[in-house]
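Hi Prof. W.,

I finally got the Haloacid dehalogenase prediction working! I wasn't sure whether to trim anything, so I left the full sequence exactly as given:
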Amino acid sequence: MFTASSLGGSSLSEGIQCDPRPKVVLLDAVGTVITPNPSVAAAYQNVGRSYGIELDEGIIRDRFREAIQRYSVYAFQRDRGVVDTLRTDEQSELLRWQAIVRLVLSPTPEQERPVFRALWDHFGQPENWQLFGDVLPTLSFLREQGFRLGLASNFDRRLRPIVENLLGEYQLELFISSEVGWVKPAAAFYAEVTGQLDVSPNQILLIGDDWENDVSAPRKFGWQTLYLRRDGKPGDSDKSNAYDNLRHAVGDILPV
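And this is what came out:
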């Protein structure tokens, strides 16, 4: 596994390479490859307003941040009495997002169902997502080098049409938590993906923007990892293997 120390900004250290050279390169989806457009807060505000709910975008942003923490898969499944708290499926994700929307927008009983459905559908439409600018050059480079490519994401089946629309030409292998049955950072997620890929753990490189899900946990399972810092997230300055540009990073650690 490659090592590095405090790589921030756009300056990259010399001689940092994956060892052994991986056969598969997986990327996280949201925050690494795609981002919502309009923003989450703007989308919630627009949908809420169309049903008579008026909330400041800043309030929505704060409530959403709180809701994501309160209704993490772990917390949501624990509160439902599920023993394996990192297990998930399509129905669990649907119910969890209903709880998140309820906390963020506080709809009336009459508003709740149509508001949720509108938001659920909104984030399932490819036109409401965009690629980060460094994604296409990165995938093209990796494809030219002969790597198997895929996404490993905590998402649900809505991700498939999004990826097909935005990245269909790359024929990415998709490992979606609601289909795998576990969310990152569960060891079972990485084990299941490794089994489906039919390679050794150290032949997989995962690139993502979440330290626990995309670096710490998969590294413990034997995967190689690369940490991407989009927008220089607060508190990340002490994290090693950190890059802010996907194309530069893979070119550095996976030289031709």
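Residues 1-15, 234-238 have pLDDT under 50 and may be disordered. Does that look reasonable to you?

Thanks,
D.
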